[in-house]
Design a protein that fits this description.
Radius of gyration: 46 Å
Number of strands: 12
Structural class: alpha+beta
Oligomer: single chain
Strand order of the largest sheet: 2-1-5-4-3
Order of helices and strands: HHHHHHEEHHHHEEEHHEHEEHEEHHEEH
Shape: rod-shaped
Strand content: 15-25%
Largest sheet: 5 strands, antiparallel
Length: about 550
């Protein structure tokens, strides 16, 4: 048992030490009350027996009572009012004063045979609870010395009684000190365990708060037990409104599939893994992936269910993007083959028909039919040229370019295009953003997107082109890139019909009469050539927005 000052209980603790022992401040409160009570009772007893008690005893007890009041008052001020740290000197002083008071009481009440001898044991016990073991031994030694001095008053000295009593003092000191030290050790271990549990709880709370997926726990009575912040955001509700209240009816109005998964797990007790559903918030809906787990909560007999669900809109869009890319590659290969196979015979047909139309034997009907065939051949030739453009979308050269400069040049070209309405307004916003890429391909991307937006918006078209750097948080979920740039084209048109939106980037898919349906397919392949991504968001009340994300470095790492 160490006797260093580090073994002292922390003086700043509250009323209890670890392990359930009373703290120093709480023990001192009892010491103060006991001290005043003993001094007052003995003094009053002597006063009422004034006729039989010597005047010197009355004076001694009066002085002891006044000193008790004075010392206790100062001690209360320091330990309970000012709440100063209880230093070893302060605790030693309290113990020595109490031993002196007990010795005085024994001196006037019969010496070693006094009924108040057990007060020494109380002082020793308090010292064992508030001091290290060495301090307890010092206090016990002082108590034994004072008791021995009291014993010398009697002649002859009752050696046996004094020796036995002193032995009791040291026995109490050893026993109480050892038990107090063991309880402190156990209490400190328990306190460390509680602190560790609290730390784990805080860490778990931080994880649940920061996790992007929604987590809700519902007990067997359909009462909401827990919901993290992500769940509140995804389901658009306040945890305070439903905590401890029925929740499943509200959940059903938000997501039928999530409600069915929780109810099914409550009924069957079986987990549901990697299920999918939809959350509906007014006119907006988005897909979710969900998992449910049954468990029995402490203090709750019925089966509870925890559901974890995540917005998988971005993952689905990425999956669709991958499928779209593979389909475009297949179509491109087929288009290249067909274009080459058709273009040469078509040129021969055109040339032959043109010669026949110029023949002297041709009449007006022959010349009219010849011109019709030549005109349609030219149209087919232009269409085949677009096919070849679609198949030849490859990055020819790559160097550092400013995509805002590319956007300005593309917008200037579109303004001169015959399909650009005279009342259209095109705005360029954002900042200078540099990427590694093919300037010609990116120029075609912006031209196609802006021209597409103007044609879709129609009268009073308003188109905004934004270029800027984006960080990881701006990227769709599942896309990893250290640095990326964005080109965004927004219009105020009527939006894209739902049946057209799914296949919008496929070749030959168009919502415009007379369109070839290759413009957005070329955009897709050009962006893919830069290892980028292109997404479309359309709302009839707002318009359509195309977002192109490009890695700033065109490297194998960026491609990965």
């Amino acid at each position: 048992m160490s006797a260093s000052g580090d073994d002292l209980p922390n003086p700043k603790r509250e009323s209890r030490l670890s392990g359930g022992l009373p703290g120093p401040t709480s023990l001192l409160s009892w010491v103060y009350v006991s001290r005043i009570s003993v001094a007052t009772v003995v003094f009053l007893a002597a006063a009422f027996s004034f006729s039989t008690v010597a005047p010197g005893v009355i004076v001694t007890l009066s002085v002891a009572a006044l000193l008790s009041l004075f010392v206790t008052g100062i001690s209360v001020f320091l330990s309970h009012v000012r709440k100063v740290p209880l230093s070893p000197t302060f605790l030693y002083g309290q113990a020595i004063f109490d031993l002196g008071l007990v010795t005085t009481v024994l001196w006037v009440t019969g010496g070693v045979s006094s009924d108040f001898t057990s007060l020494y044991i109380l002082v020793i016990a308090v010292a064992a609870l508030t001091m290290p073991f060495r301090g307890t031994l010092i206090v016990t030694f002082v108590a034994a010395s004072m008791y021995f001095l009291i014993g010398t008053i009697d002649q002859p000295i009752p050696w046996l009684a004094v020796t036995l009593q002193i032995g009791v003092f040291f026995s109490v000191a050893f026993a109480t000190g050892w038990l107090a030290s063991r309880v402190r050790v156990v209490g400190e271990q328990r306190q460390q365990l509680e602190q560790e549990v609290q730390r784990l709880r805080l860490e778990a709370a931080d994880i649940l708060r920061e996790i992007s997926g929604g987590i809700v726990t519902v007990d067997g009575d359909s009462t909401l037990v827990f919901a993290n912040e992500a769940a509140e955001n995804l389901l658009a509700f306040s945890n305070r409104r439903f905590e401890g209240q029925p929740f499943l009816d509200f959940l059903r109005s938000r997501s039928e599939e999530l409600w069915m998964a929780i109810v099914g797990t409550q009924r069957d007790g079986r987990r549901q893994v990697r299920a999918e559903g939809t959350i509906r918030l007014g006119n907006r809906k988005f897909p979710i992936g969900l998992t449910t787990t049954p468990h029995v909560m402490e203090g709750v007999g019925s089966l509870s269910v925890t559901a974890i669900f995540t917005d998988i809109s971005d993952q689905k869009r990425l999956n669709e993007l991958n499928v779209r890319t593979e389909r475009l590659e297949a179509v491109a290969a087929l288009s290249a083959s067909l274009a080459h196979e058709i273009k040469n015979p078509l040129a021969s047909i055109r040339s032959s028909v043109e010669q026949l139309g110029k023949s002297e034997r041709a009449d007006d009907d022959d010349r009219s039919l010849s011109q019709l065939v030549v005109r349609e051949s030219d149209r087919l030739s232009r269409l085949l040229s677009e096919f070849l453009d679609f198949t030849r979308v490859r990055m020819v050269e790559s160097h550092t370019i400013d995509i805002q400069d590319v956007a300005r040049t593309a917008v200037a070209l579109v303004r001169e295009h015959p399909d650009c309405p005279s009342d259209a307004a095109i705005e360029i916003d954002g900042s200078s953003t540099r990427v590694e890429g093919d300037e010609d391909l990116l120029h075609r991307v912006v031209v196609n997107l802006v021209l597409n937006a103007l044609q879709a918006a129609g009268v009073n078209a308003r188109v905004k082109v934004t270029t800027r750097q984006v960080d990881v948080n701006d990227l769709p979920t599942g896309v990893a890139s250290d640095k990326s740039a964005m080109i965004r084209v927004e219009d105020n048109g009527p939006g894209i019909p739902e049946n057209l939106l799914r296949n919008l980037f496929d070749p030959f898919v168009t919502g415009r009469e007379g369109g070839t349906g290759l413009g957005l397919a070329i955009v897709q392949r050009a962006v893919e050539a830069h290892h980028g991504l292109v997404f479309v968001d359309s709302d009839p009340d707002v318009g359509t927005m195309f977002s192109v994300y490009l890695p700033t470095r065109n490297s194998n790492e960026a491609a990965a």
